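User: Before I run my own analysis I want an independent prediction to cross-check against. Here's the chain; please return only the structure tokens and, at the end, one sentence I can use as a sanity check.
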Amino acid sequence: MAEISAEREFLARRLREWTLLRSIAVGEPWGSEEVTTGSDWFQRKAVETLPSPAVLILLAETGRTRRVRADASRRLRQRHHRD
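Assistant: Structure tokens:
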């Protein structure tokens, strides 16, 4: 029983994170706490796929891992050089 409920918890969280990624991508409202409390997977995926400078700045400053913070900072620099 614990295995089934743990799997559902994972699936529910991943669905919420995919929904949040989509919401940010299409310009719907989002909260910084949703982004900063997202899983490592979510934060890496956000840095890889989202063009939002606000999300990248937030993750460059408060990302969960050094990798997320560094990748977000790098994407911000790349955007700055292109503009």
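Sanity check: The two ends are 53 Å apart (CA to CA).
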